[in-house]
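INFO  loader      accepted 1 record
INFO  loader      residues=254
INFO  predictor   begin
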Amino acid sequence: MILTNDLNLPLPLFEAIKADPYSNDGADVSVTGLLKPVQQWVLEKRHRESLEVDCADRLWATYGQMMDILLERAVKASKRLQERFDIKCRLSTEVLGWKVSGEFDVLDKDTLTLSDYKFVGSYAAKKALQGDKGDWEKQLNILRWLCSKNGTICPTPESLQIVLLLRDHTAKSEVEGLKPVEVIDIPVMPLEEVGAWVEARVREFQQALELEDWQLPDCDDQEKWFGRRCQKYCDVSQHCLQNLNSKFEKETAQ
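INFO  predictor   done
INFO  writer      dumping tokens
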């Protein structure tokens, strides 16, 4: 992936974003990858070396890493916290010959609660409090399923939660009943159901890799956020025939 600096951000910040330490530990697919549209995931895999992404579009992900650093620092500084909490642990298992991996943020071994920390806008937090948690439910339940496959490393969580840190909390947000940090419980799904979903998803990805780019299944309206995702948030929009055809149709209709 080619990281650009179109907004001319300060060099130390650009280099900090560029030095992203993320690693999927040699996995064929990560939990995050499983949640992506099939077309997007395959195109990212095929065209990764030529993708151009601006560092400004990676700022929020970088801020999330800052929270990870703070949590790790706090736990490492306390023997009591080290005994109680597992922080940033990457787990993996094999599914249909593929290595599937995922990393959780915090596991409280006393309460068996798995927590995922997220920087979000007030609008996303409000929707989550109203019950629309998007892919977060699947993400946390897949991580719980991975824990169950790695019992020698960590126990299987009994409860799940997301910790939302509102990046745009204001007096208006407070009037609307939003706190700077919202903790939301996530429903726990049966492990067998989650395992079946993961297997079906891996099979779908494996089959998609046998297809040419133009044969890949289109992203549906939900996956495109009804068109809002493609241009601004999808790194492979420049390689996506569905997106390019849509742009052409709009241009010729004008």
